[in-house]
Amino acid sequence: MPNEQYLQHEKYPDIFKPLDLGFTTLKNRILMGSMHTGMEEASDGFEKMATYFGRRAQGGVGLIVTGGFSPNIEGCGADNLAKLTTKEEMEKHKIITSEVHRNKGKIAMQILHTGRYGFHDKIVSASAVQAPINFFTPRELTSDEVEKQIDDFANCASLAKEAGYDGVEIMGSEGYFINQFIAKATNHRTDKWGGSFENRTRLPVEIIKRVRDRTGEDFIIIYRLSMIDLVKDGSTWDEVIELALKAEAAGVTIINTGIGWHEARVPTIAGMVPRAAFTWVTSKLMGKVNVPLITSNRINTPEVAQQIVASGQADMISMARPFLADPDFVKKAMENRSDEINTCIGCNQACLDHIFEGKSCSCLVNPLACRETEFDLSAASTPKRIAVVGAGPAGLSFSVYAAQKGHDITLFDAASDIGGLLNLAVKIPGKEEFHETLRYFRRELELLRVKVVLNKKVTVSDLILCRDAFPTGSSSSTDTSGKTDSSAFDEIVIATGVMPRVPELQGVDNPKVISYVDAINNCHKIGRSVAVVGAGGIGFDVATLLTHEGESSSLDTDLYLKEWGIDDKYLNPGGLLAGDEGNLSKNNQIKSSDRTVYLMQRKATKVGATLGKTTGWIHRALLKKRGVIMLNDVNYEKIDEKGLHIVRDGKKEVLNVDNIIICAGQESLLTLVHDLQSSHLFTDNVDANGKKIRYHIIGGAYKAGELDAKKAIEQGVRLACDL
Ligand code: NAP
Ligand code: SF4
After folding, report:
1. Which atom of ligand 2 approaches the CA of 352 most closely?
2. Minimum-distance ligand to the CA of 353?
3. From the alpha carbon of 366, which atom of ligand 2 is closest?
4. Considering the domain boundaries, does residue 10 fall inside one?
């Protein structure tokens, strides 16, 4: 029976309309998409997953899909990655399904066979064709062995049903095993599993049929269909429609959208991809089949989701990372509190990058994600008055979580607004989503009644004063704590951040030399030829900004599709514009910049090697296409009126540029810390017994090297847990 509350939703009526699947009803149109988190393999991973998924079910999502579980050893993504093949393995899942059901949610398990993408020596595929992103070559399966793979899928689905799952998702996209049979490029077989389209799609059709046979009619089967492969010799649009019809006839309940193979050289989920940039693909399939269609990729707000469903572009919305960022995404939207949603910014820094680096998955904007059991944010036994100096990511994070615990927080910043370096990040094309992080923190400060004092350069004597001595500096600062006594702060948190490092280089005080802060804030004043000293995250950001013209393609889907060579008419197999393999070749339209930009580092390693694993290649590819000259192994000699003098490969060279922008890393801003250290009233000693005011240092002020928003926000939460 559909819930009246959802039916009557004023703001998002279409996403809160229940979805009737015949034998069961989903309470809304939001699917938490599959995402590997690393908990699947952790020793206490099933307990953690039960808490993690249970928390998302509590948040009201319509249907959850787990990370992928392989149906056999050869299908595992790496040695020891999760599989579901036996009753013993099945038993462990019951804790997940019961916790989700206890929270009135529904959950499907994803069956993922990675085929030639697996990183181990037992991998199998349609043909022995090595993936460009793998150093292992798969073994070609015999005809009988293909039959065994299909049975393994059916067995896995049957075990999932026994474990209490409401359904399974069969992963048929992203270039994995099933996709490898469908595409000509990876299927060179001449038996009944290769050759014609009929033969190449026999595998997914047989898998769906046998899964349906084994699981019965009252079980959700989602098929994740690669709707646009974004690789050479991928499926044609007609083949996509035909496969969808075959999947429907074979017994699927819902078809989900897969976008791009992992080896595709087109960004499909990074923050620089516009919101809902691929919904047009799902939309093309609407009306061609009768089963509901789910769309996905870079949908991160209820407003966008509502617009998609309302306009008939899809029946349902899949979001994966947004549920790492905020487990209460659906609940907040339902309660018309979407301004309180902690929005996924598509950075990949704590989720996918962590997975590819073998670290546990979490979220930059929500460090609690996947570690729900690790952090104790229960109410503080003794609420304290805490002064936080610095409203960058670390100070903001601490303030919000400490205020949640009941502490009375006064947050100071010398600037006229909160955000610190986030205010620079939002100016970089492709990083506009950081506006959402600022909006989120601003709203939380308001809700938690944190007293915000802006335009205030805090001194030691300020910290000795009582909190009531400061007039409020923003609308979020209404103090309703009710405290009337005027004692000083109990604890101080120093989150003063960093200042740009000035390298010891002759002529660094030349007027041509500009810090990255000035360059980003006053981009229009920068000359037509530029040398960027330092090729870390900020050097790349500056080079991106300086070579960019016009509208940011992150905000314009047509422009983005054009830039990355995606064929929105879908006239070519794989959905790429006529040319060759994809965006790095001739078919993309990223324009070369009129500005000459050198991006340099002293290290001999590849320029950009320190960038994120899943996004670094995008930044490198973009700057290369724009004509940025990336130089490694550079020795800087001096700067003078002629420009920047460097030595490379033993040869001296003068880069005759208008400006030299210093992006040479950061140093901690510790003036206030030094002043506190000189005062007998403060201490950082844990055993101070309350005789002195204790201070803590977090974020860039604590450690400038390798600092980024991810570490800063996490440090803020960790300290809040401790106080
Ligand atoms: P960074 O990543 O540490 O890079 C600093 C750069 O300056 C390096 O290329 C370094 O290379 C160079 N350098 C260091 N000392 C120098 C010196 N004395 N003289 C000349 N060059 C010097 O720092 P960042 O670019 O300021 O970024 C700060 C943090 O923010 C980093 O952790 C970064 O990951 C993060 N961030 C990330 C992104 C992202 O997209 N993921 C974007 C922005 C910032 P050599 O030593 O080889 O010359
Ligand atoms: Fe989204 Fe970044 Fe969090 Fe990943 S780490 S879920 S991309 S905000």
Report:
1. 4
2. 2
3. 3
4. no
Q: Two tokens at 319?
A: 């979001």
Q: CATH number of the domain that 391 lies in?
A: 3.40.50.720
SS3 label, residue 288: coil
Residue nearest atom 14 in ligand 1 by C-alpha distance: 664
Cα 206–chain centre separation? 34
Q: Which residues contact 594 (CB under 8 A, 6 or more apart)?
A: 528, 549
pLDDT score of 151 = 98
Burial of 437 (0-12, 13-18, 19+ CB in 10 A): buried
Residue 410, phi then psi, degrees to nearest 5: -115, 120
Is 176 an active-site residue? yes
pLDDT digits over 207-222, tens only?
A: 999 999 999 999 999 9
Render pLDDT for 575-585 as a digit per residue (tens, 0 to 9): 998 764 444 44
303 plus 413 within the same structural domain: no
Distance CA 719, CA 397 (A): 10
Q: Which ligand is nearest to the CA of 346?
A: 2
| Closest CA to ligand 2's atom 6 | 321
Ligand 1 centroid distance, CA of 585 (Å)? 29
Centroid of ligand 1 to alpha carbon of 664 (angstroms): 6
Q: How far is the CA of 64 from the centre of ligand 2 (A)?
A: 18
Give the structural domain span for 646. 502-549+593-664
- Distance of CA 540 from the midpoint of ligand 1 (Å): 9
Provide residues with CB under 6 Å of ligand 1.
349, 501, 503, 533-539, 541, 601-603, 610-612, 663-666, 706-708
Residue-level pLDDT at 579: 63
Instruction: Identify the segments of the chain with pLDDT beneath 50.
Output: 1-2, 5, 474-486, 580-585
Ligand nearest to the CA of 612: 1
Among 424, 499, 602, say which to mutate for ligand 1: greatest number of ligand atoms within 8 Å of CB. Answer: 602
**C-alpha dihedral (321, 322, 327, 332), degrees to nearest 10:** -170
**Residues 98-149: tens digit of each pLDDT:** 999 999 999 999 999 999 999 999 999 999 999 999 999 999 999 999 999 9
**Active-site residue identified among 6, 52, 165, 176:** 176
- For residue 661, the ligand closest to its alpha carbon is 1
Residue nearest to atom 1 of ligand 2 (CA): 344
CA distance to 131, 242, 246, 618, per residue, from 198 (Å): 24, 10, 10, 36
Ligand 1, residue 612: give the atom nearest the CA: 41
Secondary structure of 53-118 in the HEC alphabet?
HHHHHHCCCCEEEEEEEECCHHHCCECCCCECCCHHHHHHHHHHHHHHHHCCCCEEEEECCCHHHC
Closest CA to 610 of 517, 714, 660, 538: 538
386 strand-pairing partners: 409, 491
Which atom in ligand 2 lies closest to the alpha carbon of residue 351? 4
Q: Indicate whether 395 and 315 sit together in one domain.
A: no
Same domain? 327 vs 421: no
CA of 271 to the centre of ligand 2 (A): 9
What pLDDT score does 484 carry? 37
The secondary structure element, H or E, covering residue 453 is strand 451-453
What CA–CA distance (Å, rounded) separates 247 from 204? 8
pLDDT of residue 469: 62
- Is 273 a member of any domain? yes
664 Cα nearest atom in ligand 1: 7
Is the model's pTM score more than 0.85?
yes
Number of domains in the chain: 3
Q: Distance between CA 274 and CA 266 in Å, rounded?
A: 13
Ligand 1 atom 31 nearest Cα: 706
CA atoms within 13 A on the CB side of 153: 30
